[in-house]
């Protein structure tokens, strides 16, 4: 039993150090870069092995690994159907990712049933790694027949306390075998070599003998003499520590690592508490005579992907998919898939995987209809991870873990841009009809000025010239009047009154034009009104719920879009006036469609990441790989491969709630009044002139 379980001041124990064994196992796992392991042990009444399992769990965690599952067997005599129990536990182990099985403690009965059933379930193969500690390896030399080991335990790795085969040990071994055959008879199979426990039993008797002699010589108690014993035993240096006669507590532990090949064991190397593994430690793949790298310690990962995503640049499955289908790895393409494959290349161990495509279609009969369902497959252990354009959200991170984002993400509003050229912005304050009316009134005032000035004796001399010169003089007088130069070049006081009406009308029009243009320029910067829009969003993403809960959009204002092409269709048919997209989707959309741009502020999200089970060490490895892909520019290269537009180069959009131009109805009464007074002033001159001529004629 392990050394830390001894209790009582008068009780001594000779045993191995479970702390040293745990350090050796943890270093072996670290050496092979296994991130997940499964421990197997047969429980005992005092729970000693459970403590060893806890120590191993802490040691593995310190190295960045994790015990994925504990396969715990109760003592054989407490179960009615031992074989059935063993098979059920092995099948349960097969559901987990890890293919590294560490057997911490086992009786002979469990060992026989365990490896026999494991072979039947194809768990004894190069894909799986079995590691046995002293409790099992000691059986190799005693009760486990060599034929059983050869037939059922090929490739199993053993870790046993190293015993130096000195002359004293060889003498002990020879006597041990003779006595064993004498007591139990000779068998066709030779498995009479003394194991570590037999050697330690011999050392224990040797320690008692030495202590007994010492106590008689110094007249002390046997317990006191045992606490002082110190000698070189067959199993190594025997040093008492805390009532434990132990040769391993003082950094003296020495383990041999070997593998089963045929009927023999092949040495792989050694581990020492001070120096770790020897430099020429062999790869465990040599047990199966396999070329290449060491086993990854993981079964092929079941990778979930969206089968029919809205944006195929991220994940695209080039085959027919039902609700769920296993697809060939070569049939899956896209930006996210490229990032996943690139990240695998940065891992320090081999990982095999198979893609399983899940249909994410709204209104389908499949259980996965949106990305939240896809994420939940990881929590339910239906898949090992999810690869795709999955946004990192707090609500999704409750039961799963995301890697570092491989693509940043924001949610932005997309609107169509205006086709009208920006150069015509200066005429937008007035409507077309109003501009036509203003031009007509201008000609009217030119005609009135010309009519009043052409027969006036005090008029400018230009009115004595040809008709085009008279018209030019009239235009000049109207222009000067805008700047209050009403007297310049004007002969008739009636003309001055008409120019006064013209001046007042122009000032009103100029003020209105300035105010309207300012309003247009200001409102171009204002956000769109929530209540006046029909907003499109992807049906399978989280955006629909986000718009309702966070941005307070009403349900009747939201339109679900199932495919990327439907966005342009909905814009063209005025089904939607704007759409909310995540930034990566926007890049794809703008690279394929013109006359669209971004409106308003963006809202930062967590980005796109891969989904792993909560606490998975693989997630940390993938996160580090993604960071390296960012640092070496590979992520940017993949972005250039799949996206061809930059958001910063997008044109400004035209807002659906743009300010309306001022129309003729806004000035019709003003035009009638001012122009009417100008006409009346002109008529007054000619009526007054006619009346004067009539009066003078009567007097004559």
Automatic annotation (TrEMBL):
Ionotropic glutamate receptor C-terminal domain location: 302-645
Membrane topology: Multi-pass membrane protein
Transmembrane segments: 434-452, 467-486, 498-522, 669-687
Database matches in Pfam families: ANF_receptor (PF01094), Lig_chan (PF00060), Lig_chan-Glu_bd (PF10613)
Record localization: Membrane
InterPro entries, sorted: ANF_lig-bd_rcpt, Glu/Gly-bd, Ionotropic_Glu_rcpt, Iontro_rcpt_C, Peripla_BP_I
GO cellular component terms, semicolon-separated: membrane
GO molecular function terms noted in the UniProt entry: ligand-gated monoatomic ion channel activity
Keywords: Glycoprotein, Ion channel, Ion transport, Ligand-gated ion channel, Membrane, Receptor, Transmembrane, Transmembrane helix, Transport
PANTHER family on file: IONOTROPIC GLUTAMATE RECEPTOR
Entry protein name: Glutamate receptor
């Amino acid at each position: 039993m392990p050394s830390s379980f001894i209790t009582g001041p008068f009780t001594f124990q000779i045993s191995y150090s479970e702390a040293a064994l745990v350090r050796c196992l943890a270093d072996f796992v670290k050496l092979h870069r296994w991130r997940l392991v499964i421990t197997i042990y047969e429980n005992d009444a005092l729970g000693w092995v459970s403590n060893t399992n806890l120590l191993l769990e802490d040691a593995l965690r310190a190295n960045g690994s994790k015990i994925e599952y504990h396969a715990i067997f109760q003592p054989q005599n407490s179960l009615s159907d031992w074989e059935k129990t063993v098979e059920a536990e092995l099948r349960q182990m097969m559901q987990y990712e890890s293919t590294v099985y560490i057997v911490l403690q086992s009786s002979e009965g469990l060992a026989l049933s365990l490896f026999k059933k494991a072979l039947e379930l194809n768990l004894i193969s190069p894909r799986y790694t079995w590691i046995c500690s002293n409790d099992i390896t000691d059986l190799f030399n005693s009760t486990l027949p060599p034929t059983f080991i050869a037939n059922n335990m090929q490739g199993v790795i053993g870790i046993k306390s190293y015993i130096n085969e000195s002359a004293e040990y060889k003498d002990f071994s020879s006597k041990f075998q003779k006595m064993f055959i004498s007591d139990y008879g000779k068998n066709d199979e030779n498995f009479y070599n003394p194991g570590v426990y037999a050697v330690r039993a011999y050392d224990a008797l040797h320690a008692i003998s030495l202590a007994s002699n010492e106590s008689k010589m110094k007249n002390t108690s046997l317990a006191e003499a045992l606490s002082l014993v110190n000698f070189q035993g067959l199993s190594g240096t025997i040093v008492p520590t805390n009532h434990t006669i132990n040769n391993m507590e003082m950094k003296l532990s020495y383990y041999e690592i070997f593998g089963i090949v045929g009927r023999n064991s092949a040495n792989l190397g050694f581990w020492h508490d001070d120096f770790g593994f020897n430099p020429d430690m062999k790869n465990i793949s040599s047990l199966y005579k396999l070329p290449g790298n060491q086993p990854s310690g993981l079964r092929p990962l079941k990778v979930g992907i969206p089968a029919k995503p809205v944006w195929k640049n991220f994940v695209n499955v080039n085959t027919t998919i039902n609700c769920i289908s296993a697809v060939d790895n070569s049939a899956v393409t896209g930006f996210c898939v490229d990032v996943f494959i690139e990240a695998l290349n940065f891992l320090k161990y081999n990982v095999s995987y198979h893609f399983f495509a899940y249909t994410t279609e709204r209104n389908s009969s499949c259980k996965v209809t949106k990305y939240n369902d896809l994420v939940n497959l990881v929590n339910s252990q239906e898949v090992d991870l999810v690869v795709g354009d999955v946004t990192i959200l707090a609500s999704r991170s409750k039961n799963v873990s995301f890697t570092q984002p491989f693509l940043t993400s924001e949610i932005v509003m997309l609107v169509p841009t205006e086709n009208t050229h920006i150069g015509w912005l200066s005429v937008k304050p007035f409507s077309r009809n109003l501009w036509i009316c203003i031009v007509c009134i201008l000609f009217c005032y030119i005609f009135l000025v010309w009519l009043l000035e052409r027969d006036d004796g005090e008029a400018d001399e230009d009115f004595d010239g040809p008709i085009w010169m008279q018209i030019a003089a009239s235009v000049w007088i109207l222009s000067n009047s805008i700047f209050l130069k009403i007297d310049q070049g004007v002969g008739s006081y009636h003309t001055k009154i008409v120019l006064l009406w013209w001046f007042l009308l122009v000032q009103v029009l100029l003020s209105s034009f300035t105010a309207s243009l300012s309003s247009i320029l200001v409102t171009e910067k204002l956000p769109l009104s929530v209540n006046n829009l029909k907003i499109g969003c992807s049906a399978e993403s989280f955006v629909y719920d986000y718009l309702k809960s966070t941005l307070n959009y009403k349900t009747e204002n939201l339109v679900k879009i199932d495919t990327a092409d439907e966005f342009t269709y909905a814009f063209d048919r005025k089904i939607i006036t704007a759409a909310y997209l995540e930034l990566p989707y926007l890049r794809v959309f703008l690279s394929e469609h013109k006359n669209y741009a971004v409106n308003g502020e963006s809202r930062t999200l967590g980005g796109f990441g891969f989904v792993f089970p909560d606490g998975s060490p693989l997630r940390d490895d993938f996160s580090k790989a993604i960071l390296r892909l960012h640092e070496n520019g590979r992520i940017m290269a993949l972005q250039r491969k799949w996206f061809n537009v930059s958001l910063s180069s997008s044109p400004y959009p035209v807002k659906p709630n743009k300010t309306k131009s001022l129309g003729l109805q806004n000035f019709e009464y003003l035009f009638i009044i001012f122009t009417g007074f100008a006409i009346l002033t002109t008529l007054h001159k000619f009526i007054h002139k006619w009346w004067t001529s009539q009066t003078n004629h009567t007097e004559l």
